[in-house]
Amino acid sequence: MLAIALLTLTGLLAGALNAVAGGGTFLSFPALVWLGVPPVMANATATLTAMPGYVGSAWAFRRELQAEGALGLRAILGVSALGGLVGAGLLLVTPGEAFTGIVPWLLLAATLLFAAGPRLLAAIRARGQGGVGPLPAALALCAVAVYGGYFNGGLGIMLLAVLGLVGFTDLHAMNGLKNLLSALLSVISVATFASAGLIAWDKALVLAAATAVGGYAGAHLARRIRRTGPLRLAIVAVGAAMTVAFFLA
Predict the structure, then answer these.
(1) Which of 5, 7, 1 is nearest to 200 (CA)?
(2) Cα angle at 72 between 171 and 91, to 5 degrees?
(3) Alpha-carbon gap, residue 72 to 148, rounded angstroms
(4) Would you say 80 and 180 are in contact if contact means Cβ atoms under 8 Å apart?
(5) What is the mean pLDDT of residues 121-146?
(6) Element holding 122 (H helix, E strand)
(7) Helix, strand, coil content of the chain in percent (nearest 5)
(8) Transmembrane stretches, by residue range (predicted)?
(9) Could you give the CA distance from residue 162 to residue 138 in angstroms, rounded to a whole number?
(10) Mean pLDDT of the region 165-181
């Protein structure tokens, strides 16, 4: 009962955070580890529980989807799918002990990316038209997709940054494609992880249901929040605390 209560509370909070400002992974992943789920399986399970939110967000932005810059939409999706497969495959061959050592650094990177998010977006808006050529754009996108297939934390900010590098300037189109790519990467990762038996289904079902409810409530809450700065600071503080805890574990 304690595990169910913790998963329910974590899912509600993670779903609401993802809807309002992002950062739900900082709660769902550590909660699974603390409940005894091995880190590799916890990462796979957290990715599964985030997937419904990504799919729903991608559908909500379906009218804004369009290609800009160096790569067409099909190329972006193809490169991202390839990178996601590589990243998920890398997780499958990473020994549990090695992944335990990598996790604090991944959480640190995700926390720093989340903290830098507003400045990255401001830089993207200020950059104006342009972008790199097709090959550098494809390589950068593939690298981010590999990261997303391997670990979910901080993926949204990384995708927005690389889309700005590709040549996107319309923030609505960037958000729509970011959600679509997040959904694509999570589907690929979850299918790979499930085939390898890395999903803790008993905990995933509770966490996914609570995350969906939290995301729905968070979407309504987001419309009433005028300033997300204090909330972002609180999420960064949680991410920093989780990072320190995993470094000391």
Answers:
(1) 7
(2) 85
(3) 20
(4) no
(5) 76
(6) helix 96-127
(7) 80, 0, 20
(8) 42-61, 73-93, 105-124, 180-199, 205-222, 229-248
(9) 10
(10) 77
